[in-house]
Amino acid sequence: MNRRVVSDAGPLIALARIGRLDLLRKALGSLEIAQAVEDELRLDSDMPGATLLRRAVRKDGWIRARTVSTAPARLGMALGLGEASAILLAAERKALLLIDDRRGRTAAAKRGVICIGTGRVLLEAKRRRLLTAVGPTLQALTDSGYRLSPALCSRILELAGEAGQ
Predict the structure, then answer these.
(1) Helical (H) or strand (E) element with 150
(2) 157, 133 Cβ separation under 8 angstroms
(3) Is residue 85 part of a domain?
(4) Does 92 map to a domain?
(5) 134 touches 156 (CB < 8 A)
(6) Residue 53 and residue 72: Cα distance in Å, rounded?
(7) Which of 30, 65, 131, 139 has a C-alpha 20 to 30 A away from that of 122?
(8) Is the dihedral of CA 16, 120, 34, 142 positive or negative?
């Protein structure tokens, strides 16, 4: 994918928690995040994955925080500040939005923002031969507490050619 991508916190935290933040950089290139999303990443904490996120934002710089010019409260849906800010930043930057939250995806679509999810990143990683299979990574995400519906996981496995394995 050679398009500008803005990310919500969820996919970043989830992939960092399982030690696979590298998949985002290799599959999507650099990412932009709203300042509110950076705050949600809790870069100075001891949370699992915080070290990887801190390095990506502060040292390597492939995840860059940006200021949103529109007030997130104007989005008009009951979303968290990070999600609302990510949607508005993606709209302003005419970027794809990496987000898994269903309400966030709905709000983004209403603003004309095209969304991709973590599953799409895994499929792209497999296509680029960064993963031999998406199933183990999906399982690691689930085991770490990241919520992807069973129906979505089944669909991702089907698209990856791994259904029934």
Answers:
(1) helix 150-159
(2) no
(3) yes
(4) yes
(5) yes
(6) 24
(7) 65
(8) negative
**Beta 96-98 vs 115-116: how paired, if at all?**
parallel
Domain for residue 138, yes or no? no
Query: Model confidence over 50-74: pLDDT tens digits?
Result: 999 999 999 999 999 998 887 666 5
pTM of the model: 0.92
CATH of the domain at 52: 3.40.50.1010
Strands (E), the chain: 5-7, 31-34, 63-66, 96-98, 115-116
- Residue 75 structure tokens: 């989005």
Is residue 114, in this structure, part of any structural domain at all? yes
Number of domains in the chain: 1
CA distance 156 to 162: 8
DSSP-derived 3-state class of residue 97: strand
Interacting residues of 106 by C-beta distance below 8 A, sequence separation 6+: 77
C-alpha pair distances (Å), 146 with each of 78, 131, 138, 142, 159: 21, 19, 9, 5, 20
Cα–chain-centroid distance for residue 163?
A: 24
Encode pLDDT of 21-48 as tens digits.
Answer: 999 999 999 999 999 999 999 998 998 8
Instruction: With cut-offs at 50, 70 and 90, classify the pLDDT of residue 116.
Output: very high
Structural domain boundaries enclosing 12? 5-119
